[in-house]
Design brief:
heterodimer; A: 231 residues; mainly alpha; Four Helix Bundle (Hemerythrin (Met), subunit A); 3 domains; B: mainly alpha; Helix Hairpins; 0% strand
């Protein structure tokens, strides 16, 4: 029975992974990754790691993927301009060659190992293996330093993300040059930054991006119209 | 179900992720493929944890998840910043640092 479940879940995990690599629309890539993550969580359950499986679904398939969906909606869900199967650029052939080399090396490492326990199911488990109780105890005793460092890392990453993506950050100098014709209330958003309508239509991915040097207002009108649609 | 099977699946997912990182051009999808690679590592860690029967591998997997979350926050922040500056969202075009 475990055998059957393993092959079903592994099949879904691999299908999801293949979908992420070959699908052209980034939005479908994200959905495919969700399938992959859920299948992986089920594989974790087969390995008796209940807590990690639930954390995987809540943190990854829930929170992180919502972030991805927002950014895909913001940046644009358009297709990649060039299809993957476009006849051979050299880089693509090289990439596939390198990837095959990695896989062969990993397969040799796994199959040719001297660790005889790899061929078994693993040793008999204690009753609390994989429960929140065990994880919590380990985190607050043996791995306390790692736990604290991870929380510091999360704090730094959150601050960094706000500094990078925040509207008042030091990155976008050109956002201050808004036309004086408009009042504060209906400030036009610059073209290709923003509205969900742009994201869905793939503006900026399929359409050529406006030249940064070009300050023309007419390019910004579609964004303004779209912003009004949103209101 | 021996641990070998999980390790082979993990190697396949890692390979797919590496392929994606090398051939995709949209940085969003490159980040997604990085997630695939991290998850392949997680699967191997959990498999080894099951093999030894102690929870250390699970703690490693949780730390990897934390690092993946940080990577996503920073990576998506960079993509949004690129988009705000109207740079092309395409890793082949973003070659100013190639030296």
């Amino acid at each position: 029975m475990t055998f059957l479940f393993f092959f079903i879940f592994a099949g879904f995990a691999l299908a999801g992974a293949i979908g992420v690599v070959v699908l052209r629309n980034p939005f479908y890539c994200v959905l495919s990754l969700v399938v992959h993550l859920v299948a992986l969580a089920l594989l974790f359950l087969l390995l008796e790691a209940q807590f990690v499986a639930v954390a995987q679904i809540v943190v990854y398939a829930g929170a992180v993927m919502v972030l991805y969906v927002f950014v895909v909606g913001y940046v644009g869900g358009g297709d990649d301009p060039a299809p993957l199967w476009r006849a051979g650029t050299r880089q693509r052939a090289l990439a596939i060659g390198f990837a095959s080399a990695i896989f062969i090396e990993l397969a040799i490492a796994v199959l040719g190992t001297g660790l005889s326990a790899l061929g078994t199911e693993g040793i008999a488990l204690t009753a609390n293996y994989g429960t929140p109780e065990q994880i919590g105890e380990l985190l607050l005793t043996d791995f306390l330093l790692a736990f604290e460092l991870a929380s510091m890392l999360l704090l730094v990453a959150a601050i960094g993300a706000v500094a990078l993506a925040g509207r008042r950050g030091g990155i976008a100098e050109d956002e201050g040059n808004l036309s004086p014709r408009y009042g504060v209330v209906d400030l036009p958003s610059p073209a290709a930054t923003g509205s969900m309508a742009e994201g869905v239509s793939g503006y900026g991915v399929t359409a050529p991006l406006p030249d940064p040097q070009f300050e023309g207002r007419e390019l910004q009108q579609p964004a303004r119209a779209a912003a009004e649609d949103d209101r | 179900m021996s641990v070998n099977w999980y390790l082979i699946v993990s190697a396949m997912i890692f390979t797919l992720g590496a392929t994606g990182v090398m051939i995709r051009r949209n940085p969003l999808v490159v980040l997604l493929c990085l997630e695939l690679m991290l998850n392949a590592g997680n699967l191997a860690l959990i498999g080894f944890s099951r093999m030894w029967g102690n929870g250390s591998g699970e703690i490693f997997a949780i730390v990897v998840m934390v690092i993946a979350a940080c990577e996503v926050a920073i990576g998506l922040g960079i993509i949004v910043a690129l988009y705000r500056r109207r740079l092309p969202v395409d890793v082949d075009e973003l070659s100013e640092l190639h030296g």
